[in-house]
Amino acid sequence: GRRHVMPLVNAFLQQHAEMQIEVVLSDSYQDLIENGLDIALRIGALQDSSMVARQVGTVRSTLVASPDYLQQAGTPVHPTELTQHALVTSLRHTREWRFAHDLRVRITPRLRVNDVESQLEALRSAHGIGRLLSYQVLDDIHSGKLLRLLPEWEPAPLPVQLVTQRVKNMTPKVRQFWDFALEKLPLLPWFAE
Fold it and tell me: Which of 26, 34, 58, 82 could form a disulfide with 157 if both were Cys (CB 3.0 to 4.6 A apart)?
């Protein structure tokens, strides 16, 4: 949200000085009706089929580690080798990672943290291997701070969708932002094909 959604909101506000926007950034599921939200950006399959959704891209679940960690511990060539490595995960991650070809690997994290930036900092500092969404690690991969591991074993991409309760009954101002977001979101470099 801070890295990709806020620049989109800022660009919209620059074009529409009369607008007012309230942004809620959360990694947890937010019920649009219950929380009084007009639009949400969601990653993954939708739980509520009554929502109107427009896919704006995809992201991948990507394994990464720093070059220093890999030099010390070696580079895994198969997901089952992850059990022999230090792993850095989010507190929300399960104790099992799923891979392509229906492979599941039971994991025991060395370090668990409650936010992405802390996880990235630990990975950059050579504390292990982590699994994040492609847009979260894109900058670090491009800069060489982190290396992508086992891309051939990544599970299928997850859809990224702009969702709302109903398009027909949107206020004109909300519709303006909806149209703007539908145009701009697919252009962002954080979606993985």
Answer: 58
State the 10-residue block means of pLDDT for the chain, 193 residues long.
86 93 84 87 81 90 97 98 96 88 95 94 98 93 97 94 85 93 85 52
Contacts of 38 (CB under 8 A, 6+ apart): 32, 164, 165, 170, 174, 177
CA separation for the pair 65, 71 (Å, rounded):
10
CA distances to 1, 18, 159 from 21, rounded to whole Å, are 14, 10, 25
Tell me how far apart the alpha carbons of residues 59 and 72 are, in angstroms, rounded to a whole number.
Answer: 29
| CA gap 118, 50 in Å, rounded | 36
Q: Of 9, 35, 5, 1, which is closest to residue 176 (Cα–Cα)?
A: 9
What single DSSP character describes residue 186? G
